[in-house]
Amino acid sequence: MTRHIGIVGCSAEGAALCYRTICAEGAESLGSYAHPEVTLHTYSLARYMQCIERGDWQGVGELMISSAIKLARGGANFLICPDNTIHQALPYVEPRSPLPWLHIARVVATEASARGFKRVGLLGTRWLVESEVYPEKLAARGIRFARPNAAEREEINRIIMEELVHGVFKPEAVAYHQQVITRMKKEGCDAVVLGCTEIPLLMNDANSPLPTLDSTRLLAQAALRRAIDETAPQT
Question: What is the pLDDT of residue 38?
C-alpha cells in the first residue's frame, strides 16, 4: 500500500510537470505503469495573482487551505505544492491545514546539502527571490545564496509570467537565464536553484552553466519517497 499524494496546484505548467514526474518515476520503485494514488486540485491562477499582486499572502493561504480541505476529503494523506512563490503563505496555512505538507524549499535545501553545495544562486519570480522562503531553509543547512540583481529579477519575472506559465519556451529566454547563471558562477555560486516550477521546462543540467537544483522534480521525488515509505523523513 502507498500513501495518497495531494497536489495543491497553482500554475498549470508547474503542476503538470510535478504530476508527470510522480507518475513516470513511480514505476521505478513500484513496477511497470505503477505510481501512488494522486489527486490534484487548483484554483484559477488568476485568483492567486489577484492576491499576490496586492501582497495579500493571507488571501493566498485561504485558497491553499480550501484546496487542502478538498484534497483531504478526497482521501489524500499528505500535501505538496509545486509552486515556489505561494510557499510564502504556508505560515498561514499549516496551523489550519487538515493534512501535513512537504515544503519545497526544505526539500531543495536537503538535496543541496547532500550534494555538498556551499553557495547557490536562486532563480524564480521576483516575489519568490525577494522572500525568505529559501534563505531560511538554506541557512538551516549552512548554505549561502545569491539573488538576481534588480534588473535580472524583473526580466526573469517577465519571462515566467508572460511566457513560461503559458507554455511558451523561447531560445532568448534560455540565453538570458544562462547569462544570469554565468554571472552567479563568477561570483562564487556552485549550483543554481530553479526556484520556479516552470523554469525546469526551460533550463537543466545540459544547458546551465551551473549544476541545477530542480525544485519541481525534487519535490515530486520527495513525495514519492514519502508515499512509498511511511518512515521516510518529512522533508
Answer: 97
